[in-house]
Amino acid sequence: MDLEMKSGKSRGPMHGIPILIKDNIDTGDKMQTTAGSLALVGNIASNDAFVIKKIREAGAVLIGKTNLSEWANFRSTSSCSGWSSRGGQTKNPYILDHNPCGSSAGSGVAVAANLCVVAIGTETDGSVVCPASVSGIVGIKPTVGLVSRTGIIPISSTQDTAGPMARTVADAAILLGAMTGIDDQDLVTMESKGKAHSDYTAFLDHDALNGKRIGVERKPQGKNQFMHALQKKTIDLLKSKGATIIEIDYLDEISKLGEDEFEVMQFEFKAGLNSYLSSSNAKLKNLKEVIDFNNANEDKAMPYFKQETLISSNEKGSLTDKKYVEALKKCHLGSKEIIDKVITVNKLDAICGLTMGPACSIDMIYGDRWGDVFLTMPAAVSGYPHITVPCGVVYDLPVGFSFFGIAYSEPKLISIAYAYEQASRKRTKPSFKKSFL
User: Fold this and answer.
1) Known SUPFAM superfamilies for this protein (predicted)?
2) 290 part of a folded domain
3) What does the alpha-carbon distance between residue 224 and residue 414 come to, in Å, rounded to a whole number?
4) CATH, residue 147
5) What is the pLDDT of residues 151-187, one digit of tens each?
6) CB of 127 within 8 A of CB of 144?
7) In sequence order, what are the beta bridge partners of 388?
8) Cβ 430 vs Cβ 115: under 8 Å
9) Which of 14, 56, 161, 211 is the most exposed place for a label (fewest CB within 10 A)?
10) Which candidate in 22, 141, 412, 426 is catalytic?
11) Cis before 103 (ω within 30)
12) Which of these, 88, 118, 117, 124, lies nearest to 103 by C-alpha position?
């Protein structure tokens, strides 16, 4: 890349930029792709994932892979985010005994700690925006279909997507543009034809909040007074920049879809992982073999929490199963109807709210305790885009503010998030404090 630049050739804004990617994304080089699992140690892909081909073509320099919540946090219901049997425990760069969230824990921490310029994470429900929020950075969960999933170890074909993580909205927008593209191996990307952009920096507008109508849940998020004060301060700033804030009711209705969402994930995880493993260079060729490996190596593979989610997923039937079809209709189509209706009726440009609370403590034995603020599900189950931007700190830990909207509304969301970011300037550098006390 340096030689190209010296000879006068520039591939664009990603030329020569050092980037890290989550260790569930294939690279056709000497690096392994393991999803953080000892069961996949030795899996070296034959080819780059489609999204990696795109960023290499754009000139990015891939310098490594990041740790993650093992199996993208789809192994156990009592897991500790940011821990994997291969990589150990990722730590929050602001207070080291606190949790980095996940599953894209390493990607979020690496960006916050300045180990790279930008990183790529993946999300099924919260796995980009959650670690971005608690690491005080920007994360974009794109519309499902904007970015190819070919070559990424899957959970849910309905909800999975890769997304950019960066210290600024501008950097995230640059990386997003390099990641998009139609892939004939991932048919859902066909839906992005005519809706995707190769340059999202065109939508960076300081005055984008002026005239926008933005919805916020009427009921206060959580019970913490500092979080309430932070949301009020953020909403007041949005108003001061010309936005009209509309109180809406939608979260209670969306939250009722949680059981159906998990049902869909389990069915799709079994089908998707079996397909991935069967054609990979991994020694294990299906989910059952992964489960058996973990059982045979329990002390190393499962020293803290077990694999009940892997087991329950393996017990599911095929994607023609009536339970799967009904759950998919309820959660995916149902969530779209709820969000589309509230946006249409109230003539909204976006919906906003605190992304989640400050990071909980690391607890590998008993698992995560994330509190009562977690605004990831609406955009996740619908497959809609979601961006989180730093909005302040609580207990010396970063908190993010979210904007999400209908499918392929990334240009509008990026412009809103950028205008807010520039007006607020709330990102602070990590302090690497050893403990909360």
Assistant:
1) Amidase signature (AS) enzymes
2) yes
3) 28
4) 3.90.1300.10
5) 999 999 999 999 999 999 999 999 999 999 999 999 9
6) no
7) 139, 402
8) no
9) 211
10) 22
11) yes
12) 124
